[in-house]
Amino acid sequence: MKNYNFLTTILLGITMIGCGDTKKGENSLFNIDNSAFPAHFSTSQSVSLGVLNPKDKKIDSIVYYINDTKVGTVNSATPFKFELKDQKLGYQNLKAMVFFGGENSDATARIEVISDVTPKLMKYKIVNTYPHDKTAFTEGLEFYKDTLYESTGQKGTSYFRKYDYKTGKVYQEVTMDSKYFGEGITIINDKIFQLTWQEKTGFIYDAKTLKLEKSFTYDKDIEGWGMTNDGTYIYCGDGTEKIWKMDPKTQKMVDYINVYSGQSKIKQVNELELIDGKFYANVWQKDAIAVINSTSGAVEGILDLSGLRKLVDVTEEDVLNGIAYNPKSKTIFVTGKNWDKMFEISVSE
Question: Which residue of 132, 180, 234, 265 is 20 to 30 Å from 25, comparing CA positions?
Answer without folding.
Answer: 265
